[in-house]
Amino acid sequence: MKHSTFLFLCLVLVGCNKKNTETNYGDVSVSKTSIRYAEGFNVTYHGNVKAVEVTYPFQGATSGYKYLLVQKGQTVPEHDPSVRVITIPLNDLVCTSTTHIPLLDYLDESDKLIGFPSTDYVSSEKVRRRIDEGMVQDLGMDKSINLEKLIILKPDIVMGYTISSDFGQFKKVEELGIPVVINSEYLEKHPLGRAEWIKFMALFFNKEKEADSVFNFIEKQYLETRTLGSAAKEKPSVLSGVLYGDAWFLPGGDNYASRILKDANCLYLWQDDPSNGYLQLGFEAVYEKAHAADLWIGVGTFSTLEEIKNADYRYVRFKPFTQKSVYTYNARKGAKGGSEFMELGYLRPDIILKDLVKIAHPEMLPDYELYFHKKLE
What we know:
By secondary structure, the chain is α/β, with parallel strands linked by helices. The chain has two domains: 3-219, 3-Layer(aba) Sandwich (Rossmann fold), CATH 3.40.50; 231-375, Nitrogenase molybdenum iron protein domain (Rossmann fold). Helix content is 31%, strand content 19%. The strands form five sheets. Strands 9-8-7-10-11 form a five-stranded parallel sheet, with helices on one face. It has a five-stranded mixed sheet with strand order 15-12-17-18-19. Helix 1 (3-14) packs across helix 8. The model is unreliable at 1-27 (pLDDT under 50).
């Protein structure tokens, strides 16, 4: 389904959504939302004020970050000094991950983005047009945002992510008086949990109803495809990842990628591993377990079998290589080479799942064409 058609359907579905409780406060209409899969954030409503907590902001975190979202022109209630106060709806913002951009696109708030680090990574056609028109400033590398440019932009918030308790550059951003909001969608284990972070973004624009409609559609598509895949009689074994230096990186058994392969009715060969991060294994350990795999899905930046062979001759020893059953997820690139999978995939696990079911059980989706994935030649 083309994204423009999808967005139109979501706008229609907004009027049909019965699950939200909408409350009016003068000229502010707040539509409450519920969270079903995401574990990394929660929200409670106190009148027209939203108390938002990112409960698991980085791997190994023992505490989270709290935000108080207060409607424009209304009194800020008493709160703990550690709670960051954000005035909503936002006039503008800076994002730091390409995965944040589809959240804006699908909420029809792309025009609020005014800055981004390394804009060449952006694939979204809407945002690329804004970049080309000079409406989105390139703020330099992610870990060293150009603070001078940021001061000039003075966004309402910077939406960031962190891999540790060290706020790093974000601490300097907050010292400039610009609130930083942490988005930790990447830590969600369930594919629909990641997609549900559109509801997190929606909180800052009073667009809970729109976010629920988008998510409900994605959830429906995902669950229907999972049911379809489960009816397949065969369960092909799957290898993933490639060597980086001396280590082969591949998803742990409790990782997002492992979960979505399982939902596609595949036998991911490391699915019994308890880790939710990425494993680093030696070549021989991987070869011993996966040399006879049926499929090899996810091969980094390689775009042809010849590239794989030239990178390391040992790759040709794997059955999926010899049988040409190797798939990349980078079939689609943005105008500057950014990966559409890495940008849009978090929000659209339903599309990823359809791709995987098509690859593993082509008879179940005879008319479907791969979107993110393609077979390497």
